[in-house]
Amino acid sequence: MKARSFLHLLILPILLFSCNGTKIDKLLGSSSPYKDYENSLKNAGMESYALGKDWIEAGEKALLNPSSISLPYQEVTRFENANPQAVFLEYSVTEGQEIEIKVEQISQQSGMVFIDVFEKTDESQKNIHFAKEQHSIKYKVTKSGIHGVRVQPELFRGGIIQIAVTYNASLTFPIEGKNHQSIGSFFGVARDGGARKHEGVDVFAPKGTPVVAVTEGRVSRVGSNRLGGKTVSMAASGYSYYFAHLDSQLVSIGQKIKPGDTLGLVGNTGNAITTPPHLHFGIYKSGRGAVDPLPFLASAKELAEPNFSDSIDLGGPHKIIVPKANLRQEPNTQSSTITQLTNNTIVFAMGKSSDWYRVKLPDGENGYLHQNLLSSNLPPLSKIDMSNTISLKEDFLNENTFPSDLIGKKAEIIGEFGSYKMLKSESGAFYWAID
Questions:
Q1: Are 318 and 270 in contact (CB under 8 A)?
Q2: How remote is the C-alpha of 56 from its chain's centroid?
């Protein structure tokens, strides 16, 4: 193929997607910007060339090799412009949560960053949400499970990027001026000496405090019973929301209501007659019964401002600087240990979350290391004379090797991984040598 034709193929997808906010989903008639971009590469013949092929494979490989996080989570990462990369962060979700994902481009403002949310199933990863024109996603969890977010810049774009994944309350709190930290008794605790379990949460408040609607819907029941005393129920989106022990009810059956509308006033009617005034709030799902209201009402603590000072070293090699370092499943000391790494082991720092690095081992395994366990300072362990008897390779996972005398006369050994040594040539390039 002539050089000019290849250049046209190369520029086509870049022109289509480089402007942030382009309504490419309307242009191509597809709903997923990531798939649209992937298809444009294929349609332009780019999947036959290393650059396009590497970009597609980076997205696919990320899904197979997730990094585990607990919410809320925030990290600073760095994507090299000339090296297609993707990160896939996997997290547990609970029915009722509202998940919020924000991706902010720090060092580069132009270009697309694709954000896709996947649900883990028994057989595969199912794409359930994606960002269109904004670098953020909000969605409500309808089923507890494992989700993950893949973040991948378009070709020739990247730089320093901040990723934040957190959760918010999906319902308005049922008592004015209070939040989930005001809950005094939780779902599932024993009642009547263990004869039954609590099917909701209790929030204590002065008698007469307004009890408000948690979402938009209709009043489905206004009544009374032995346990709940004066009650109000409202229905919305397949759920029934139950408010009990009211001192008075201020709505009628069939009434349409909005979040924050007053339904009644806090009291201690029913079996709460001997307790301080409080609201019992329950959630029921058709065909399933009671579900825990806490995830519907709880919001995560605010994330601290990130520190960008270490971002210049992200993506490059780091070295273990202690005799033994535990590679963790998640960025905390309570997380399970994946493996132990020894002094001078080479890892690649891919992201930074507070005091923890998200790292990738040369063999592709992911995990987390505390910042005190590794360093980007790579003093030589020894020097080595290059000769054609030593075999080198640029990529640890690549099988292609070449004789070491092609890179110069001398090199420094700066670290190791398994039976391989990492060398730094006289020109500053890094290579792997078989021990």
A1: no
A2: 21
